[in-house]
Design a protein that fits this description.
The chain has 2 domains: 128 residues, 2,3-Dihydroxybiphenyl 1,2-Dioxygenase, domain 1 (Roll); 123 residues, Roll (2,3-Dihydroxybiphenyl 1,2-Dioxygenase, domain 1). The longest helix has 12 residues. It is built from 4 helices and 16 strands. It has 272 residues and is of the alpha+beta class. A hairpin with a 5-residue loop joins strand 10 and strand 11. The two termini are 24 Å apart. The strands form 2 sheets. The protein has an 8-stranded mixed beta sheet with strand order 2-3-4-1-5-8-7-6, with helices on one face. The chain has an 8-stranded mixed beta sheet with strand order 10-11-12-9-13-16-15-14.
Amino acid sequence: MFEKIQHIGYLVGDLDAAVSWYENRFGGKNAGGGDLPAGRVVASGGRNAFVHFGKVEVELIEPVDKSNLSPTSLVMHHVGYVVTDIEVVISDLKSKEFKFLAEAPNVNVLGQKVLYFDPSSTNGVMIHLTELPSQPNTIGLDSGVKVDHIVHAGYLVGDLDNAVAWYVQKFGGVHIGGGASRRGSRNAFVNFGQVQVELIEPTDPAALGLSHEMDHVGYSVLDIQSEIISCKEKGLSFVADVANTNSVSQQVLYFETESTMGSRMHLTQLPK
């Protein structure tokens, strides 16, 4: 069903500054953007920009109401999943009791068909389906840091076993492993379609209840050592000198959040 993660979306206090940050730190290029209407996706409305680097995309959203946003921060807002035929997938997901924020997809500035889930049916997080156009916008692709794809989005969850079961039941996911987590007490990785999610149960999960909270993004690279050097040359820093190997044999190294506008991100080299 899901072919890949198209992008992670962030709320930003200063759109122009955030675009410049991606250009300077990841070698990205602004692929386009425009105005956003007020509604359930962005309550106050605003404007956005899509930035491409490597083979990935990020959406940056500056809302009209920036009262809770710093001009120098990235706040995770949503995940966009790619599907081949959005109408077929919508029908299938409705049969599994998923709800959406509109009756039909809209077409964004990049020509992508997009439809957001109602977060009441996705554990409180914002997710949307994306069908790519036959001739996608390629501005900036293959520039900058050589990110091959987004390997996963990471979420904090109040009940790890319940969260794993939800992905297995709702998306046909497969629990591939997990264990002790440096971020929380324990984690689990679930694959569904061609994508992955990391679920992290914090040491004090009570505040989350059954809700999920966006925590980080993992960028897959083919040669993590080379990309660590490339990122350092662009002014990014890391929490350690070398990558660690996680419970599913991925080499992982997190960026220092002080160098990534406060947002949690890591490079990942997948096992061969």
